[in-house]
Specification:
- Helix content is 31%, strand content 22%.
- It starts with 8 loop residues before the first helix and ends in a 10-residue tail after the last strand.
- Among the domains are: 120 residues, Alpha-Beta Plaits; 110 residues, Alpha-Beta Plaits, CATH 3.30.70.3190.
- The strands form three sheets. Strands 4, 7, 8, 9, 10, 11, 12, 13, 14 and 15 form a ten-stranded mixed beta sheet that branches. A three-stranded mixed beta sheet has the order 1-2-3. The protein has a two-stranded antiparallel sheet with strand order 5-6.
- The chain is α+β, with helices and mostly antiparallel strands.
- Helix 1 packs antiparallel against helix 2, helix 5 packs across helix 7 and helix 11 crosses helix 12.
- Its EC number is 5.4.99.25.
- InterPro entries: PsdUridine_synth_cat_dom_sf, Pus10-like, Pus10-like_C, Pus10_N_euk.
- This is tRNA pseudouridine synthase Pus10.
- It catalyses: uridine(54) in tRNA = pseudouridine(54) in tRNA; uridine(55) in tRNA = pseudouridine(55) in tRNA.
- One of its GO terms (molecular function) is tRNA pseudouridine(55) synthase activity.
Length: 533
């Protein structure tokens, strides 16, 4: 029936007699055949019983008793004698005697497995698979493949340990090494069984790289406290962590099990583990789609609109923002749970962004809809533009997460072009400002502006004004066009910020200067790609 050998017979005898399900028996026998685990539970149990019966008939009265001493080559090291030979009552764990195949009396289809607590029994059946798929279909996601994840109660790892100890002892008595690392993990077996059933029911393949995740969380309240003795034995393994309801996480329990000595473990936990009345509960069945990223450029035409919601001390100052005017349409169409907005720099609430606009990207978290044609994206862009006269977007498109890095690079490395309307206290003539046009690569030392000191660290930043071009308006006003290094504080370059930016327009003109209006004329980042109209 399977790649089982005579050395597996005492393990099968032991496990079936203590209430272990057939699939867990195969795991402990290190059977790696995925197809075999997919056979019905009853069929596997019947085949294992048949294997024991045939083996006994062929070998006569062969009985591999663990009380026989191991061969001299594999005797325990001094000080380890009996380390794994006693259960929590001090008794040596014994294998059941051969009994013509009746060793499996305690393992029957109706009993809860004492190792997996029903995960490889109840939850491998078609009824549960249909329940999972109903949950997926009712959530109304778009997906072309799926990845399946499962969260198991940490006490299942505790329950495997005494059986590993007993089986290890059996191997030592046979003079064989115990292949502990070859025991097939419960989670892996469960996925082997579930994947083809889910794939058939959902009509899409299972793919480990899929962005659409179907997850099941199991719990077993009846045995929750079985991990608790480990906290006393290995307190360093259990430390409170943020976002964790309990210190008894799976990884913490595994770490403690690796640390605790066999004799200490067996003082606190039965060997073999006792059976339970109830199987695990599937407490959560969830779906989650990987994030989708949308990028584009926006123009901002209002001098009374912040880029992101403007909230001070819990009080909202303005009713909307660039972020919200764009995202509300994307959220509705992609049916996402939430979003994260980012852009190549930002402008103040009273600054317009003109020209070809400012690059932005929005991460849409857990979107239910992910497939959009070029025409659908074009209509979505138009809907955003029709909804407000304060902003316009262009080049709206789907992008990858990695592509967003190109936008962020431009925040410090690229140049930006501005237009500033400047006022001076003393009258000026054309010739008074003409020299500004000849200044190239002007170096500035900018101490963190007072207006942003509450959210930016205090530092002196060196910035460059690459070029300037002045336009005389009247005796007290002129317009200045600037090409600057990204990250330059333009307002402070004009008025000086009480001497925190040096040099500044005021010091260059030898008079008081202030900025009345500021426009961003271009953000020189060649991303995202320009789309045809």
């Amino acid at each position: 029936m399977s790649p089982l050998t005579e050395k597996d017979r005492p393990i099968i005898q032991l496990l079936l007699s203590t209430g272990t399900c057939p699939r867990c028996v195969l795991r402990f026998c290190c059977v790696g055949s995925q197809m075999l685990y997919r056979h019905p539970h009853e069929e596997l149990l019947k085949d294992l019983r048949e294997f024991l019966r045939n083996s006994h008939e062929e070998e006569g009265s062969v009985c591999l008793d663990v009380s026989d001493p191991p061969c001299k080559r594999l005797r325990l090291e001094p000080g380890e004698e009996g380390a794994g030979d006693r259960n929590h009552n001090g008794a040596i764990p014994q294998l059941p005697p051969a009994d013509d195949g009746n060793a499996a009396a305690q393992s029957s289809p109706g009993n809860v497995c004492n190792v997996c607590l029903g995960v490889l029994q109840e939850f491998c059946e078609a009824a549960f698979v249909k329940k999972v798929c109903q949950k997926v279909n009712s959530a109304d996601y778009q997906f072309t493949s799926f990845v399946f994840s499962v969260s198991l109660p940490p006490q299942l790892s505790v329950r495997e340990t005494p059986l590993q100890v007993t089986i290890s002892l059996c191997f030592r008595n046979l003079g064989l090494p115990f292949p502990k690392d070859d025991i097939v993990q419960l989670k892996e077996v469960y996925k082997w069984i579930i994947h083809p059933q889910l794939s058939e029911e959902l009509g899409v393949p299972a793919d480990g790289k899929s962005l659409f995740e179907v997850s099941v969380v199991f719990a077993h309240p009846e045995t929750d406290e079985e991990c608790h003795f480990l906290a006393t034995a290995c307190p360093d393994c259990f430390k409170p962590a943020k976002n964790k309801q309990s210190v008894f996480t799976r990884m913490a329990v595994i770490k403690a099990l690796e640390k605790i000595k066999e004799e200490d473990f067996l003082k606190h936990f039965p060997c073999p583990p006792s059976s339970t009345k109830n199987h695990c509960d599937a407490v959560e069945i969830q779906c989650n789609n990987g994030a989708v990223f949308v990028a584009g450029r926006y123009n901002k035409y209002s001098r009374n609109l912040p880029q992101t919601p403007w909230i001070i001390d819990g009080e909202r100052k303005l009713e909307s923002s660039v972020e919200e005017l764009i995202s509300e349409h994307l959220m509705a169409q992609f049916k996402a749970d939430s979003f994260n907005f980012s852009s190549s720099g930002r402008e103040d609430v009273d600054v317009r962004t003109l020209g070809n606009g400012r690059p932005f990207a929005i991460e849409l978290v857990n979107p239910h809809r992910i497939h959009f044609t070029t025409e659908e994206m074009r209509r979505l862009q138009q809907a955003i533009n029709d909804s407000s006269d304060k902003i316009q977007v262009r080049d709206l498109q789907l992008v990858t997460r990695s592509a967003i890095g190109r936008m962020k690079e431009g925040e410090e490395e690229k140049t930006k072009t501005y237009s500033a309307l400047i006022w001076t206290d003393k009258a000026i003539q054309r010739e008074d400002i003409a020299f500004l046009d000849d200044i190239k690569e002007l170096k500035l030392d900018q101490k963190t502006p007072l207006r942003v000191l509450h959210r930016r660290p205090l530092a002196v930043r060196c910035r460059l004004i690459h070029t300037m071009r002045s336009e005389y308006i009247d005796e007290h006003h002129f317009r200045l066009h600037l090409k600057t290094q990204a990250g330059t504080y333009i307002k402070e370059f004009v008025h000086g910020d009480f001497g925190r930016t040096k040099p500044n327009i005021g010091s260059l003109l030898n008079r008081t200067a202030d900025i009345l209006e500021l426009d961003v004329e271009s953000v020189d980042v060649d991303w995202p790609p320009t789309l045809a109209d």
